[in-house]
Amino acid sequence: MTAYAELSAHFGRIAALSNAIGILHWDNDVMMPRGASPSRAESIALLHVMRHDLTTDGRIADWLDAANENDLDPWQQANVREIRRIFTVETALPSDLVSASSKATSICEMKWRQARAESDFASLLPYLEEVLRLQREIGQAKGEKLGLSPYDALLNDYEPGGRAEKIDALFDDLAAFLPGFLGEAVEAQAKRPQGPAPEGPFPVEAQRALGQRMMATLGYDFERGRLDVSTHPFCGGADNDVRITTRYDEADFSSALMGVLHETGHALYEQGRPAAYLDQPVSHARGMSLHESQSLLIEMQACRSREFILFAAPLMREAFGGEGAAWDAEAVWRRYTKVAPGFIRVDADEVTYPAHVILRYRLEKALIAGEMALADLPAAWSEGMRNLLGITPPSDRLGCLQDVHWPSGGWGYFPTYTLGAMTAAQIFDAAKLSQPDVLPGIARGDFAPLVTWLRENIHGKGSLLTTDELLTQATGRPLDPAVFKAHLRRRYVDEA
Is there a binding annotation on residue 266? Predict the structure, then answer.
């Protein structure tokens, strides 16, 4: 076998392990009984160590040195680049640290579910302290290998090439823009008040059926995935087995539906990755800002458009047997584009959502740097919410316990949400310009023009290009925050 063939076969085995880990994590969040948590943590930790050992195998360095890139096509060259990047990062970590982190996050995530339900941060604190301690060690080890700060090293896992310095500038600009714009949006919408909301209850089975119908409309392949329930909505699973979850509230069907639409955006990306390289790093989604751009493009850009609501409002009315003006398309659109500060990030509107992310980004940076104690998180969270949105959470459940990311080890992930929102606006604009039938198609429930364009320009590219290269190729320019601001003004002030 050639050196490249050896690399390809080796990383195919790593992909198989990753698929097994992905399904076990899905089961952990969806079906596993609480009493199985300790043994499951041991099993997942062992698989993480096995994957780490494979990813740091000394032969990889020899194969990388021997691979003659002149004999490789552009996809194979990009695969070698991605393998080298992964190998460099993973060799920074000893196996015992990988194992300890895996066990700590598995246990902490289970404790988080109970703590969130009981709004009891104190009960989670010792477990989250251990996760944070290990994340600091991981960030330090990777940072020393890459020449990065610990936080940038953690961020790099989710956003290759991403740096806090650039994000600080973008987020400081948004934090200065949002309060004034929020006032403009609220004032504009007050001139055309909302009508009455539809009255529940909205049975879970009816919500589930509506969600599945929308997933099918968007192009989700149920032969390669499924919809389930979890404490926190997510998209996970394995290659060719892309599973999503949501959570239901019989008093409000919109939260579950929008969760389904958001996670379907992630799933479409995963189901659209290049099939010829599915078990290779070059097939992976480029980074989480692009991944979040796809979920937010579907949920926010496409499915809160007037065109989509014209199509969807009659289906909502039919699903729940609704009657009256509350189910008219214009009334539904106004509810789905209402701007109002709230406590829960996943339920936030487009205007206030970035504030939720900026808060979490600033807090996790301070925690990783040791600039604040984890015990002070609830108070710092409340202060940040007051400063950014003018509201104070009445409980930890509605505050610092609402997200699973930190208990599950996702430190450095949060900024990709707002980077993704800005990216989504830019990609959706490019798709509409390139394919004039995108919006008319959405209005009739035909997402093929949009999804086909995304398959060709985003999903099917995998990690062939860097994030900036991919975005420039797809939209004609690197990330431009002005596009996102213009979108917000158009939807929430000009059209309100």
Answer: yes
